[in-house]
Amino acid sequence: RRNVDAEDRRILGTPDYLAPELLLRYEHGPEVDWWAFGVCMFEFLTGFPPFLDDTPEKIFHNILS
Question: Residue 52's domain spans which residues?
Answer without folding.
Answer: 15-64
